[in-house]
């Protein structure tokens, strides 16, 4: 499968892990996740799931 969007998946996974770490472990003033960052992560997750389903043939 030749999908240009697949090139962005490692970046998505790294960002998603960082957001999860902040949500799970950080406290204090720097622990908040801005709504626009959360919205972006949700959109990227949707793309990730869509491309994974397409690759598996389960669209």
Question: Helices and strands in order, then pairings?
Answer:
Blueprint: H1 9-25, H2 35-56
What would your notes on this structure say?
The chain has 59 residues and is mostly helical. The protein has one domain (4-56). The protein is built from two helices and no strands. Helix 1 packs across helix 2 (35-56). The chain starts with 8 loop residues before the first helix and ends with a helix.
Strand content: under 5%
Shape: elongated
Number of helices, counting only DSSP H or I runs of 4 residues or more: 2
Most strands sheet? none
Gap from first CA to last CA: 14 Å
Query: What's the domain count?
Result: 1
Report the C-alpha radius of gyration, rounded.
14 Å
Number of strands: 0
Low-confidence stretches: none
- Helical proportion? 55-70%
What's the order of the H and E elements?
Answer: HH
Computed structural class: mainly alpha
Average pLDDT rating: 81
Which key features would you list for this structure?
59 residues, mainly alpha, 66% helix, elongated
In short, what is this structure?
This protein has helices at residues 9-25, 35-56.
């Amino acid at each position: 499968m030749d999908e240009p969007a697949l090139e962005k998946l490692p970046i998505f996974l790294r960002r998603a892990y960082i957001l999860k770490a902040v949500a799970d472990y950080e406290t204090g003033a720097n622990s908040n996740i801005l709504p626009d960052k959360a919205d972006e992560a949700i959109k990227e997750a949707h793309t990730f799931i869509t491309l994974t389903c397409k690759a598996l043939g389960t669209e």
